Each structure stands twice: as C-alpha cells, then as structure tokens.
Amino acid sequence: MLKVNIKTQRKIKGLTQEELAIRLNVVRQTVSKWEKGHSVPDADLLIQMADIFEVSVSDLLGAEVENDKEMGDVAQQLSRINEQLAIMNRRARRIWKAIAIVGGATTVLTLFIILFNYTVPSAVVSSPPVGEATPASHESSVVLESIVIAYDTRSVSDITVRVGESFPLNVITVPNFEGEIEWISSDPSVFSIVPMSGGSKATLTALSPSASSTTLTVRAGGNTAQCIIRVREV
Questions:
Q1: Average pLDDT for residues 140-146, to the nearest whole number?
Q2: For residues 128 and 135, what is the distance between their CA atoms, to the nearest angstrom?
Q3: Which residues are paired to 182 by β-bridges?
Q4: Residue 131 burial (C-beta neighbours within 10 Å; 0-12, 13-18, 19+)
Q5: Rounded Cα gap, residues 31 and 7, in angstroms
Q6: What does the alpha-carbon distance between residue 105 and residue 110 come to, in Å, rounded to a whole number?
Q7: Backbone CA torsion sign across 69, 75, 76, 81
Q8: b/e sequence 186-196, b meaning 16+ C-beta within 10 Å
Q9: 151: which residues sit within 8 A by CB, 6+ positions away?
Q10: Can you say how many angstroms the Cα of residue 184 is from the centroid of all Cα atoms in its chain?
Q11: Which of 175, 145, 153, 148 lies closest to 94, judged by CA?
Q12: How confident is the model at residue 55 (pLDDT cuts 50, 70, 90)?
C-alpha cells in the first residue's frame, strides 16, 4: 500500500516528515496526509520521492510500472484518487457542520424548555419564612451523545509525536457543548496542552520522550474523552 511504503522508506532513510517535506517543497502536513491515506502524491512527486528513497516507483506503489504509458496511467489514477478523497473530505465537513447546526438548535430548544418549566412557576411560589434556609442549587452534568478528541474532523484515540512537534487538536461534541472544556495532560513533563480561545481547540506540544504511553483527557460537562499520547525521540 502506497501510504505504508512512503512511511517505511522515509524511516529507512532516517528522515522526519518535515525533512522529507522540505526536499519535496511541500508542507509537513502534506506528507502526514500521504502516510495516513488522506491524499496521495501526484506522479511528479512520486518520482521525486523514489529518487530520494533510492527505490523505484514500482516499489513505492507496490505494483510494476514498466514504461511511460503505464506511468501515465498511474498519474491518471493518482489524480482520480485525489479527487475522490477531496470529495469525501468535503462531504465529511458538511456532515459535521450539519451535526453542529442540529446540536445548536437542540441546545436552544432545551434551554427554552427549562426556562418555560421552571421560571414561570417561580412567579407564584412564595419566599421562605425568615430564618428558614433556602435549598442550595447545583449545576447538573450535561449528558452528551458523543464527545471525541479530533484532528481536523477526524476522531483520534492514539497519537505518536516526536519531541518538539506541535499538534493542533479540537473537541467535537454532540450536541454542541458551549460550556467550559478542560484539557488535562497525565504527565506535563512529557507533553503540554495549551487550550485556545473558547476551549474547544488546543495545541499539544511534545516535550520529552516517554518509555510508556501517556494520556490526554478532555472533560466537558461531566463527560470525558481520552487519547493515548506517545512521544518519541527526533
């Protein structure tokens, strides 16, 4: 499989994603997408990678390419695959946008119901006698249908990063949660997590390698989601 072969050959050459990206004149995220199968390189980049890795294009593709005509066919196939992946990504973004809209509408409706049920009766309830304690109110937990840690729109449960790398993450909740979101690192000496404005997004930075995996926990309205974080040497 192409994504596996790219990652394997890169590691054999001892290159980081950043180093390979610089040699190909692309950004690191592009290399990451290739290795995760979210997109594929075009024919020219494929040839450049084969030269860098000192392997054949056939080795990267995992299939024999014997002449220019077959290379042209490969280029067309890569172009079609990229178009299909782009369509799938746009469709996924539309689905999450629709979920967010439905979640927002659900939240508004819930607040309306709460106000209607509890605010109106309070107008006809007399105050407690002097000296009698008023029962203390408390904030109940919000029950979410789903809470996940995500990179862009993709749910993640296990992340491997190198020392010094930063990784943007966000929280996706169904319905949309507008309260306080808490990000917790199980070992701040291994990785730090810095929430951004609003709390639904944060930046994870790998600080030092760890022999064992560490955990990132996100809390929202009494609900939690966790992701395993593995930090490796550069």
A1: 72
A2: 10
A3: 219
A4: exposed
A5: 9
A6: 9
A7: positive
A8: eeeebbebebe
A9: 159, 167, 168, 169, 170
A10: 16
A11: 153
A12: confident
Q: Residue 45 is encoded by which pair of tokens?
A: 């980049």
- As a whole number of angstroms, the distance between CA 151 and CA 200 comes to 12
If phi > 0 it is left, if psi is from -120 to 50 it is alpha, else beta; for residue 87 that is alpha
Element (H, E) at 172: strand 166-174
Q: Which domains does the chain have, with CATH numbers?
A: 2-86 (1.10.260.40), 146-232 (2.60.40.10)
Amino acid letter for position 231: V
Q: Is the separation of the CB atoms in 12 and 1 below 8 Å?
A: no
Looking at residues 71-81, what average pLDDT do you find? 64
Query: Which are the contacts of 184, defined by CB distance < 8 A and separation ≥ 6?
Result: 193, 216, 217, 218, 219
- Model pTM above 0.90: no
Neighbours of 99 (CB within 10 A): 17
Which two three-digit tokens encode residue 181?
Answer: 């979101």
- Confidence tier at 126 by pLDDT (50, 70, 90): very low
